[in-house]
Amino acid sequence: MSSSATTEATGQDPIWSVSEHLDDILGTVRPLEPIELQLLDAQGCVLVEDVTVPVSLPPFDNSSMDGYAVRVADIAGASEEFPAVLTVIGDVAAGQGEQPTVRAGQAARIMTGAPLPPGAEAVVPVEWTDGGLGGGPVSGMRAHSAAPDGASGEVRVHRPAEARAHVRARGSDVQAGDRALAAGTVLGAPQIALLAAIGRGTVTVRPRPRVVVMSTGSELIQPGEELAKGQIYDSNSFALTAAARDAGAIAYRVGAVADDVETLRSTIEDQLIRADLIVTTGGVSVGAYDVVKEALSSVGYGGDGDGEGDGEVDSTGSGIEFRKLAMQPGKPQGFGTIGPDHTPLLALPGNPVSSYVSFEIFVRPAVRALMGLPDVHRATASAVLDADKALTSPAGKRQFLRGRYDADAGRVRPVGGSGSHLVAALAHANALIVVPEDTTSVEPEADITVVLLG
To answer: Rounded distance, CA 254 to CA 142, Å?
Structure first.
């Protein structure tokens, strides 16, 4: 991990910039090793190699309509007054192996997706015909099981058609040898559909990262329980678990851990077996009950807590550094690796807004890096500040304010105040307004950068 942070004027505590802390995280986190998965298990994962089409799609000329396969010359000039009368020689259904040959004066009743039979040059929709009933245009075919005679007899066609009308050509979707999907593609439902359509049953991907989320604090209880004096509901673990899933991870919510050092250490040890990344929230500031900091910083980088760095590790293999960042909200942060597999751990502040903002700026990029994605950051946009008065920001700190961004108007309006406990305002925000470190005031109608959420 880097140690490029600057030092406060007091010379006591190093101050890390947002960029330095993020660079340290991304310099430590490595993409997960590729594995081969069944298609549905690979949903949300990232391809690690190009996928080539082994067989053209569709693999044969087929009908795009329910109707009749015909020869173009036989229906030239057809109309309702003077329909073309053709002999029906049988049915061509989807999945049918052998097809009848359509000759002059003949038609084959054909279903959507069925192969175009030999001799046929076009398909006329059933609505352009009498459906073999001898009357005017029909709206559909009779079920074969109820009227098997529909595959024989005569059909009157009321309109002409050009060659290849309502025919999906072989290879019109993709050709054999084409690149179906490129390495780096995230597999969603359409991509999985394409893989299945070209016959791929498995695919090599980087798996979705497993993220364990836990909040700390003896005052926290689960939603649905009754609050006692001095208690609050645990919202952070729910917010961060949902955010991790939104980022592409498989997320496990542990819930609230009491303010007890040994309980926290044992909980983290228990969770290492199913974690590619651990996220804690709370207990990282300078209070007497900030147990995350107490539990994980005493060992340092492989030392025994005496500050000598003698190479010994405790049972958690902790290497967590706690830092102060030039950031608001989210000044206290922790980062390092833990356990025998050097699992990354990000320790976030406990205030709800600080926690969520820290996730978006630091944890989400780490999740995306584990997935092997080339671009790990949220999209940003330039917007005009829609505010009643100037925004103020502390000198030397990068401030992230909640905002409501209107993409059509290119404007953003602050939502709520700057307090790090204001959860309600966060629920109505769709962007973070970024005020740079060297800016202490932003006037209304000024251009400003926003991080787009969702």
So the answer is: 58
Contact 323, 334 (CB under 8 A): yes
CA angle, residues 218, 222, 225, in degrees to nearest 5: 110
Maximal CA-CA distance, the chain: 101
CA distances from 418 to 48, 86, 342, 378, 424 (A): 42, 78, 36, 21, 12
Q: Which stretches does DSSP call E strand in 71-172? A: 84-92, 106-110, 122-125, 154-157, 167-168
Amino acid of residue 238: F
- What are the average pLDDT values for consecutive 10-residue runs of the chain, which has 454 residues? 52 85 96 97 96 93 96 95 95 88 96 96 96 86 74 93 96 93 96 96 97 90 87 91 96 88 90 96 71 68 37 53 94 93 94 95 98 94 96 95 96 78 82 96 97 92
Structure confidence by residue, pLDDT tens digits, 150-163? 778 999 999 999 99
| CB contact set of 229 (below 8 Å; sequence gap of 6+) | none
218-222, Cβ contacts within 8 angstroms, sequence gap of 24 or more: 218/258, 218/259, 218/260, 218/289, 220/256, 221/256, 222/255, 222/256
Q: Whole-angstrom Cα distance, residue 168 to residue 64? A: 6
Is residue 280 within 8 Å of residue 347, measured between CB atoms?
Answer: yes
The pTM for the full model equals: 0.82
Beta carbons within 8 Å of 82's beta carbon, 6+ residues apart: none
Q: Which residues pair with 157 in a beta bridge?
A: 84, 129
pLDDT per residue as tens digits for the range 296-347: 865 433 333 343 333 333 444 458 899 999 999 999 999 999 999 999 999 9
Identify whether the C-beta of residue 91 lies closer than 8 Å to the C-beta of residue 108.
Answer: yes
Distance CA 166, CA 238 (A): 52
Cβ burial, residue 134 (10 Å; 0-12/13-18/19+):
exposed
Taking CA atoms, 332 is separated from 292, 316, 345, 358, in Å, by: 12, 22, 14, 10
- With beta carbons less than 8 A apart as the criterion, state whether 316 and 269 touch: yes
Instruction: Give the whole-angstrom CA distance, residue 361 versus residue 389.
Output: 27
d(C-alpha 125, C-alpha 159), whole Å: 10
Question: What is the token pair recorded at 308?
Answer: 């000598």
